[in-house]
């Protein structure tokens, strides 16, 4: 998600610092973005000058201190609450007081993340959809303390990145994943209970409901670890058994079969598909 957000921001004219724990990972990320831009250039969607201009806006970096002068930070680390709290605690100390601190979390309530920051009024949810360069939606979520100024700046930024921001309330899973993820979880139960194979479940939803991707393929595309984290946040947050994660989903994550990003999930992927 970080790569997609960086690519979209840079191609919209913003200077982007791509921060990872590991500099090599950030450098590799820029090479992946170049691969995407080259594909767009080959299709005639952008010209060579635009490709180079976008690449020139991206700078790889390691360590949160690099975010010190940023006007906006968009956090896209893995979906683990303790990690997000630690990142926002540190970012709040490192970043300029005027900076807005946004999280791309797909399910963790923003009020809980913002509580880690002393200046909680500048923390907000900016939830992009995957693949970021293609999907028009950004869910915008205000925590209890989020200021109107921070919300206004993030709505404007989403629009400047060519997206349509939709504001939703701060509850576990927000709106998008409260609707999408139980469907994916149910699709996995359908496989678990032997009702249909992964390919058959996907065909049912693509041919029968005109979904562009079947739910099992989509789960592999999102990442099964992220799907499980979202279901756990819904389950714990609402205390409702209807959100219980499917045991098969838990097994796949325990096995390290996380989907497209690890080369194996419900399906197996070649290196070039990852
Ligand atoms: C978990 C969360 O918190 C929230 C979420 O994000 S949930 C996930 C939301 N996303 C979805 O539901 C995606 C559902 N799938 C789709 O919409 C489509 O299958 C898809 C857009 C991913 C691919 O579309 P497709 O028609 O099957 O394939 P394809 O023809 O290869 O791609 C269509 C376009 O998207 C582009 N594209 C596909 N994958 C891309 C990627 N990873 N990055 C950038 N561009 C991509 C292609 O280049 C192509 O562009 P052009 O039309 O300009 O040529
Ligand atoms: N996957 C999806 O479809 C969507 C995901 N999201 C949300 O976006 C966020 C990221 O998701 P996704 O890209 O799938 O997650 P991944 O776990 O696939 O990627 C997260 C990236 O963050 C890096 N990272 C790990 N720890 C740190 C750290 N301490 N500081 C900086 N970077 C770190 C990881 O590096 P390494 O690989 O080396 O660990 C990895 O490159 C999550 O909150 C997720 O819920 C939102 C919308 C859609």
From TrEMBL:
Residues 1-170 form the 3-hydroxyacyl-CoA dehydrogenase NAD binding domain. GO terms for molecular function: 3-hydroxybutyryl-CoA dehydrogenase activity; NAD+ binding. SUPFAM superfamilies: 6-phosphogluconate dehydrogenase C-terminal domain-like (SSF48179), NAD(P)-binding Rossmann-fold domains (SSF51735). Residues 173-269 form the 3-hydroxyacyl-CoA dehydrogenase C-terminal domain. The keyword Oxidoreductase applies. One of its GO terms (biological process) is butyrate metabolic process. This is 3-hydroxybutyryl-CoA dehydrogenase. Its EC number is 1.1.1.157. Belongs to the 3-hydroxyacyl-CoA dehydrogenase family.
